[in-house]
Specification:
Length: 312
């Protein structure tokens, strides 16, 4: 029997990590000769640094971080989609509208990437200017952002995704709307790698992408709903109520996981527009073909059976 290939995949410890957990538990990765080590990170900064140092091979997170690395002069390529972020603009119970966020503090992961840029764009549409009418405080991933809001009611809001968005609302916080409703299609989560690593490890990367899609198909299969909710409870220490609400969000058309993690080029164009409006235009991001390579995904999909494998 051939020796398995070990790869490190970095993600955030939230519900969007489910395909990775399923891939391990249900054997989708091992069936393709992969030993996937999941790095559950506290911040996108650590992900970017790890990818650059090659201590991380694949990042499964907001692709805007890939764009940030490209702007910094690194040769990163986006190889798969995933989802549109599944993000809600969550605020404290006393906040009734975006106008109420004037002179308030919001918590983010990193102020110059991903969902912080989306928050800035939404707020600008409501007449609020970053670092003039409101400020950001960097605290890390969505779990840390929710914790900050629970511990300090003076922190007015944050962009949160499942399961933290569901928990926040059960706790009495309110949503000012989903980001896709405010901004339209958006390619949030996806997979990106250093181009040099992908070139040398094409077969490994394609095996990973195929396994990920198989895991995703298993996740959205309603016959596995009980096991998915149990996994959410165990992995994220959720109540059954929050786990059930989270699973429904993950499977919701046009909001949850994209079918087969297909890359949304319209959504990615909106990512670029948002970055340009908030951080300024950059010539290195003018041509999608220079930092998107779907050949790995296309090859992976060609090797996947249409049938969904059952649990072991």
């Amino acid at each position: 029997m051939a020796e398995s290939v070990q790869i490190v995949v970095s993600t955030f410890p939230n519900a969007k990590a489910l395909p990775l957990w399923i891939g391990q538990q249900q054997g989708f990765f091992s069936a393709r000769g992969l030993d996937v080590v999941i790095d559950e990170t506290d911040s996108s900064k650590l992900q970017r640094e790890g990818l650059e140092r090659a201590t991380i091979h694949i990042v499964q997170a907001a692709v805007d971080n890939a764009l940030s690395m490209i702007v910094a002069g690194l040769d990163v390529v986006i190889v798969m989609g995933g989802e549109g972020g599944m993000n809600d603009f969550i605020v404290q119970a006393d906040i009734r509208s975006f106008r109420d966020l004037r002179s308030r503090v919001l918590v983010v992961d990193s102020p110059d990437t991903a969902y912080a840029l989306l928050a800035r764009k939404v707020l600008s549409q409501h007449g609020l200017t970053y670092n003039v009418d409101y400020t950001f405080k960097s605290v890390g991933n969505a779990g840390r952002r929710l914790k900050a809001m629970i511990n300090d009611p003076m922190i007015a809001g944050a962009v949160l995704n499942p399961p933290f968005s569901a928990e926040a609302q059960i706790r009495g916080m309110r949503s000012l709307g989903r980001l896709v409703d405010h901004l339209g299609p958006y390619q949030a989560g996806g997979a990106f790698v250093m181009r040099a690593w992908a070139c040398v490890n094409r077969q490994t990367l394609e095996s990973y992408l195929a396994s990920y899609v198989e895991s995703l198909r298993w996740l959205v299969d309603e016959s596995n709903s009980t096991m998915v909710e149990e996994m959410l409870c165990q992995r994220l220490n959720l109540s059954a109520e929050i786990a059930a609400a989270t699973r429904l969000e993950l499977n919701e058309p046009a909001f949850g996981f994209a079918t087969d993690a297909k890359l949304d080029l319209v959504g990615l164009t909106n990512v670029l527009m948002t970055r340009g409006e908030t951080e300024g235009e950059d010539a290195r991001l003018q041509n999608l073909n220079t930092f998107v390579d779907q050949s790995y995904y296309d090859n992976a999909m060609a090797g996947i059976s249409p049938e969904i494998r059952k649990a072991r």
